Amino acid sequence: MYGEKLKFFFLVMVLCLSMRQIAQSEEVTSAAYTDYPPFTADYLEGGGFAIVLATEAFKREGFVVKHSWMPWVRGATLVEKGVVDFTLPYYFTHKRTSIFEYSEPIYSIYIRAYGRRGSGENVTSIEGLEGKTICHPRGYANPVYLQNLFDTGRATLRRPMDMEQCLKLTLSKRVDYFLSSPEVWKGSLERLSLSEDEFEELSFNVQVNRLYLVFGKSNPRAPKLVSAFNSGLEKMSADGSLRKLVEKYDIDVRFVDPLN
Hints:
This protein is an alpha/beta fold. The protein has 8 helices and 12 strands. Strands 1, 4, 5, 6, 7, 8, 9, 10, 11 and 12 form a 10-stranded mixed beta sheet that branches. α2 (about 50-60) packs across α7 (about 220-240). The radius of gyration is 21 Å and the shape is globular.
């Protein structure tokens, strides 16, 4: 009887300590797009690599992440206004530095152009995309050179809601190419049950970007939150937990910036 009471006492103590720890943790809110695998996706365990990484990094610094799914543009707008603390993962652009604070980079991502296999075209450089119709989903940042082509009417931009629509538009010959990273477009292939053989990847990089967490400059907590995430990320890199997370999501460790 005494042993059972002792076990119950310790159980109550553990629960009280856990509740106290949760109560002492500060909440931080995040938003991300539902379909950017393997980084953010509502069908992946934990919401994807980037969300699990952010959650764990903040946890190391005493924060609890409360996450919401929403379109790119809406999430960015709410972060800009300070309604939501951060969104992820985002490319760096000079234009965005006026409204966002950036974390340390978490991944280097290679953007390429993909077309329908057997189209008969032989595009070997980014300049060869001039005069083409190119698909890049709404909310994705356009590579600088291509943005110039779009702005001057030397190429046509299509902006559907998601990457899966870009793949469909390419196969139906309504666009010539779509832009993506190898990681993201393969996730879209799986969702659509399509084969890589139906597409061809052009041989050059359209642009190399890094992925970050971004925080609104209008948010008075932004500097503290950026510092907390960076500190947690550094700890994860040092103790090996970041590498284990990379392996779990089958991500190429060569492109995980904190590990290189």
